[in-house]
Amino acid sequence: MAKFCTQCGAELRDGIAFCTNCGAKAEQDSTTPQVMPEMQPATRPAPRRTDPPAPQYTPAPQPKAEIPADKTVSTGTFFGLIFLFSLPIIGWLICLIMAFASKNKNIKHFARAMLIWLIIALVVGALIGLAINALINTVTPYLEQAMGELGQIGSSGDLGDLTELIEQFGSLGDMMGELEGMVPTE
Q: By C-alpha distance, which of 51, 5, 2, 10 is closest to 24?
């Protein structure tokens, strides 16, 4: 006569001590299947897998590869970049490219800092150039007048005009001396 599992109702072969469906211990007198109360006699649960589960393969953790974007940059590299960025036009273009396209964060930030300094230097240089140009344009008429008077004196040979010119400059010197006397000294 056939034997059935008392837990799940699966048919048991002769000589088996445990149910191949649910793993429950097979009893000797279990010739009639006993159905669980919540199950209806017509339905049986799906048979369970009897072979042990296959071990899942978990790959060994790989060491994290160093990302070139985080690689530390040496002092020599910074020295070379400073030299490269100081070259007119070509170095400035390379600085501009490296400020936005470099994969290494250290080089990118350094190039951006150098680009900011380059812009500051160009603006300050332009302002100084404009100030010198304005100064030259202001002083040039006075110099041309003085040189013209000196040229006339030299060509006419008249020393009276020369002494008159020296007296004018002398009076300017006296006026400067008076101004210096008005300034308090420590």
A: 5
3 to 8, 15, 19, 25, 26: CA distances (angstroms): 12, 10, 10, 12, 9
* Domain assignment of residue 64, yes or no: no
Structure tokens at 181: 């006397």
Say whether both 167 and 99 belong to one domain. Answer: yes
Please state, in angstroms and rounded to a whole number, the distance separating the CA atoms of residues 127 and 33: 103
The pTM for the full model equals 0.41
Task: For residue 183, give the amino acid letter.
Answer: V
Rounded to a whole number, what is the distance in angstroms from the first to the last CA of the chain? Answer: 129
Determine, yes or no, domain membership for 130.
yes
Name the amino acid, one letter, at 142: Y
In a domain, 7, yes or no: yes
Q: How far is it, in rounded angstroms, from Cα 93 to Cα 86?
A: 11
Whether residues 9 and 79 fall in one domain: no
Looking at 29-38, 55-64, 73-82, 139-148, which range is the least confident one? 29-38
Q: Could you tell me the two tokens for 42? A: 């017509």
Number of structural domains found in the chain: 2
| Model pLDDT for residues 78-118, shown as the tens digit of each residue | 899 999 998 888 998 999 999 999 889 999 999 999 999 98
